[in-house]
Amino acid sequence: HIERRVVGDRVPKMSIVAPEPGMRLVRDPDNPPARTTLALRVVVDPPAQQVVWYVDNVSFQVVDYPYTARWALKPGAHTFQVRLPFINAASAAVRVRVQ
Length: 99
What we know:
It contains no helices and 8 strands. It has 99 residues and is mostly beta strands.
């Protein structure tokens, strides 16, 4: 049994607002990893109970409203996406590069 949490028949729309698409970030190697993080933010309309952040197509963190998370910077190209649990709905992917 799959639980669906939608308002009526409307699947929520998800728009990642941070990070911005195409961002290029430079990680300061002198800062501890816990302090070199990227804020992840998404707008969900209508609101959902939870969302799942994916980094490089791997589930990263399940979060409740306001759906924010922090990701430790790692060198390379990375893709961020938000999906709803138990529903086939996802945001557009956002790609960033960390140097």
